[in-house]
Automatic annotation (TrEMBL):
The protein's name in its UniProt record: Conserved oligomeric Golgi complex subunit 5
Keywords: Golgi apparatus, Membrane
Main subcellular location: Golgi
Protein encoded by which gene: COG5
Record Pfam families: COG5_C, COG5_N
Highest classification ranks of the organism: Eukaryota, Fungi, Fungi incertae sedis, Mucoromycota, Mortierellomycotina
Localisation per UniProt entry: Golgi apparatus membrane
Example GO BP: intra-Golgi vesicle-mediated transport
Organism: Dissophora globulifera
Amino acid sequence: MAASIPELDSYTDYDSFLVDHFDPNTHANSIIHQSAKGELDIATSLSSLSFSIDSLNKQLHDQVTTHYNDLLSQAAGIRELETVLETVKLGLRTLSASMERLSFKIKTPFEQIKTYTIQLERLQVTSEMLRRVLRFLYLSKRLEMQMPGGDLELTKAALTLSEVDALLQESDLEGIHVVDNEVKNLESVRGRIVESADRMLQEGMSAQNQAQVGSALQVFYSLKRLDLKIVAMTSYLSNRLHSQIKQTVDIQSIQKEAKESGMNSSSGFGGGGVRRNNGEPSVGAAPLWTSILWKRMEKIMDEMYNGCIKIYLLERVLARKRDPLTQISFLEIVSSSMDGNMVHRFWQSLSAHLELELKAAARSSQFLHQALIDGFPRLLNLMHEFFSRVSVHSATAASEDVQSPEVVLMLRAISTFESAYKLKMTPRSNQR
């Protein structure tokens, strides 16, 4: 019987019971459905299932009986394995407890140190911020006390203001109400300092007072405006002289002055304002017009002299004043920013303006053209007197004026009239 059971069992389909997610209800419904079709008998299926169950039980019994000792040995091994597993679990629990203790010993102090470090950093930032705010308020108070003072206090006020500017650039104090309120007043104070320094500079240059000019330049240097101020000052002097030169040789202005002089004078220049139809003076008015022209030329030489001595004064003071830290003279700083020598650039501008306006006047008026040519010796004499006066204030000796670049530039400006005068004075026999 034992041998016939496996043979009979081989006809039983066990595969349907071995599929994943086996559902007995689905299997039973399948059998009933086949029975309804007449393909399978339910009684036969039940008998087959019963026989298969008995067969499986018999096979299990045979397996247990055959391998009884091995099963007992494996069961004992499982008990030993459970003992080992319990030991491992105990070790893991011990390790977990040790990790918790170690975490408490390390993590908690680490978190505390991290918190204290953040607090320390913020305290340091706050302390530094408060220190800068206190410094700002101290400088603002000192600036307020220095403002009503004289020239010396003005220089100190400019230095204090520069410290305030540096402090504001280095620190972000925006949003602090006490600082914001003071910053609003700084621009007003800055404007007053610049205005006072401008006035001091103008007065010092007019009076040739080196101390005043030096104090004013120190103010502009402290405010980091020295190069801008020197450029503006030289441009102002140059443009002013340009305007004066243009006015000096303006034919309409000469005619107007001649007219007023002729009306108010009992001299022999009566009717000096009358001109010919072509805009030139009449024969009788020509002497008066010539006299007015050369008086104007003498006056413009004085104005040019005043402009030159102011430039030389600026140069001397700039060369004397130095940065306290680098010991670089103000003149070197200005020259580097202006890309050239300040005095030479002024002379270039002056000679260019003089040449431009004299030539333009000669082209616009036959009278001026003839007067400048005929009176060239007088113009040259005025030039030499001008050079002699200027040489006293420049670094060039009076005997060296002819070789100085400035003299060469100015003589070149009137060279056109020199050539015309020489041509006119050349004997006619030589012309032939």
